[in-house]
UniProtKB/TrEMBL annotation:
EC number(s) reported in the record: 5.1.3.15
Listed Pfam families: Aldose_epim
Taxonomic lineage of the native organism: Bacteria, Pseudomonadati, Pseudomonadota, Gammaproteobacteria, Vibrionales
Family: Belongs to the glucose-6-phosphate 1-epimerase family.
Protein name as annotated: Putative glucose-6-phosphate 1-epimerase
Organism: Vibrio hepatarius
Alphabetical UniProt keywords: Isomerase
Length: 293
């Protein structure tokens, strides 16, 4: 995503400005080490480009920046649930307006922190008090941390994901390792399947890998790089690509959009909200993904 061409709303420091894409304000980071963009709509990372490289993050050319729809591409925050186990699908965080809490910078990079707290609107969807923070560290690598606090007087359960869309030169040539061999296949009635240690795609995929290694690697011969995805706080890694038929069914993705991305998601997976992670009053949980090339 070309952040440089967007109009500036306000300059916050030498490295951090607020820019605007249609109806969405974006925190733009321009540092010697890397550039990045984090939309306030959804707390959504839309770009991360280390100096001298192609963007590591994929955004749809037809993503809708109306401040209402979830953005297609980037790193959507699925919370307080992942999937279609409740409405709206993937929770409400990715459709909510986040607040810029602070930004810090030094020679190594920039840290941006956004916040989302329970409100009358969120309580109508999910009747619990919470405070969540998104900490985005932009250096030679991208580190995204979702910090969840239960500020209620009773425990609640949740699931979630950092639904990262990664930019690849050609999905048919990209090779994935480190995801593990066992997965739940959402395209085959959630059957548990034993697969291989290496994955090259030739069709749509929607899999919950249950035993991922600490690092998942995408070897990309077209862009001549290997992406490393390191996740923490997760219990699964979700891999997804809709392929041609899926892309054609989405109004916010070009028909050929599937050719240049793969989702590798740091996921706290649960088949229902009740079976999710329980967080007691005063407790904190953190889900994290680190992406480098």
């Amino acid at each position: 995503m070309d952040l440089r061409s967007l109009p500036v709303v306000s300059a916050l420091s030498d490295c951090v400005t607020i820019v605007e894409k249609d109806a969405v304000k974006i925190v733009r980071v321009m540092h010697d080490k890397a550039s990045a963009g984090i939309a306030l709509h959804g707390g959504h990372v839309v770009s991360f480009q280390p100096a001298g490289q192609e963007d590591l993050i994929w955004m749809s050319d037809t993503a809708i920046f109306d401040g209402k729809a979830a953005l297609r591409g980037g790193i959507p925050i699925c919370w307080p649930w992942f999937g279609r186990i409740a409405a709206p699908a993937h929770g409400f965080a990715r459709n909510s307006t986040w607040q810029l809490i602070e930004h810090r910078e030094n020679d190594n990079g920039v840290i941006v922190e956004l916040g989302l707290d329970s409100s009358e609107e969120s309580l109508r969807i999910w009747p619990h008090l919470f405070s969540i923070r998104l900490i985005v560290e932009v250096t030679e690598q991208l580190k995204v941390s979702l910090k969840v606090d239960n500020i209620d007087q009773q425990p609640w359960t949740f699931s979630g994901a950092l639904h990262t869309y990664l930019n690849v030169g050609d999905i048919k040539q990209a090779k994935v390792t480190g995801m593990g061999s066992e997965y739940i296949d959402s395209l085959q009635n959630d059957d548990v399947i034993q697969g291989g240690q290496e994955l090259v795609l030739s069709d749509t995929i929607d899999r919950v890998y249950t035993q991922p290694e600490s690092d998942i690697l995408i070897q990309d011969p077209v862009l001549q790089r290997t992406l490393t995805i390191t996740n923490h706080g997760h219990n699964c890694a979700v891999l997804w690509n809709p392929w041609l038929e899926g892309a054609q069914s989405m109004g916010d993705m070009p028909d050929n959009g599937y050719e240049t991305f793969l989702c590798v998601e740091s996921t706290l997976h649960a088949p229902s909200i009740e079976q999710g992670k329980t967080l007691h009053p005063g407790e904190t949980y953190q889900l994290e993904t680190i992406i480098s090339a």
